[in-house]
What does this fold into?
Amino acid sequence: MAEIVAQDVALAKAAALLAAGDLVAVPTETVYGLAADATSGEAVARIFEVKRRPRFNPLIAHAGDLAMARSYAVFTPLARKLAEAFWPGPLTLVLPLADGAAIHPLVTAGLDTVAVRIPRSEFARALIGEVGRPLAAPSANRSGRISATTAEDVEAELGDRIKLIVDGGPTPVGVESTIVKVDGDQIILLRPGGTPTDALEELAGMKLVAPGGGIEAPGMMASHYAPEAAMRLDVAEVRPGEALLAFGPNRAAGADHAAAVRNLSPSGDLREAATALFSSLRELDRVGASAIAVEPIPEHGLGEAINDRLRRAAAPRDSAPVND
Ligand code: TXA
Ligand code: MG
It folds into this structure.
């Protein structure tokens, strides 16, 4: 079983394991990550084994600072502007891979681009600095399942497969980073997330564009974040036997008879709702209800990321999960 160690005393131990090619679950401001030395093929291969993640789905390479990020990714002036405004923070930039970058090709799935972010979590940045190399880290959950926002959730997902979980408490943002590809003078939105789209558009002075034909983010297939229970979105009425994921002050009809209720934010605050999303889904899933009914959530600000995750959680599960 994995050992759970508080982040203020975990740095040396976590760095030593990573330097030796092992995996460590690490808190970031978005969700917990399953980290490995991004320059070691053996270490990165362990991520795919432990998560049962398909190898064609590339990983984010996390940097401790801009100098490290620039050692493996090419920044245009537009990319630099985004980085300076939003890093450290929940934004991932997909950029051209730099010539001679030390990133192992398993991280990029052989693409000529690399996903980069500098996390806001001080522990994560200190750890990257201590190891002295970028860390590849997908969300610390089994492939296709709900992302982990507490050390206990990581333990439930991966506790029997890794040695160390660093406990930084509940993650403050609660949904994964926003992923954009900076392509010439265009910014392509690959995944809505913890940095709201409108904040990016305001800073860049332009609209983000949707991905064109083909799958731009190999991991962005429909079914993901799948709870055991079925999901029903935008409900006005709770059916018998269902659990309710609520939002805001007003309840759907039949809420009194729900098998269980979790309110993402009684006051209707989308930031608070993002923080509570994955843990609430996990809790409602444990109730054993026939389905999880979800009240409507506004599509602006962090609502875009919340609705994206809910739609993936509700997507048909008949195909094998290809995401993580
Ligand atoms: O907040 C986050 O982003 C968390 C924390 C741990 O940093 N990480 C995370 O990683 O969500 P993951 O592996 O669950 O999602 C990364 C996504 C995948 O959908 C993958 O396909 C996409 O990034 N991706 C990675 N490299 C890419 C590339 N070169 N081009 C396009 N998409 C890429
Ligand atoms: Mg994930």
Summary: The chain has ten helices and 14 strands.
